[in-house]
Amino acid sequence: MVAFAKEDNILHHKEVGVMSDPTARLRQRVIYRGRVQGIGFRYTTASIAKRYPVVGYVKNLPDGSVELVADAGGHVLEQFLGDILREFADYVRQYDVQIVPSDETLEAFEIRR
Q: For residues 45 and 80, what is the distance between their CA atoms, to the nearest angstrom?
């Protein structure tokens, strides 16, 4: 199921699933759009990631958006992504969230180029 919402002038849609265990690990891919390149988005996101037990990566995409893939417990992931949105509320105009398979081993949080 996909949910659409507009909060604080940010348009987003998110895959909504039912998690029976909110501490179970979950991997999400988020695409941020707006003025998200050239403002320190990747470096600040990596800094925020240090506060949480999260692994994954953040990278710029050729179309001017930023891709984030993060893997953590459900509540941790929610808090981490919320911190990113609060930090960049004036820059993010849209974000799309997808639950993705854990087919790549991620051991740390990194900035990819």
A: 9
The reply to whether 25 belongs to the active site is: no
Whether 51 shows a pLDDT value over 70: the answer reads yes
In terms of residue numbers, what domain contains 83? 2-112
pTM: 0.83
42 is catalytic: yes
d(CA 71, CA 54): 6
Q: Which of 42, 86, 112, 113 is catalytic?
A: 42
Domain count, the chain: 1
Determine the Cα–Cα distance for residues 36 and 24; give it in Å rounded to an integer.
Answer: 30
- pLDDT at position 3 over 60: no
Domain CATH number, residue 56 = 3.30.70.100
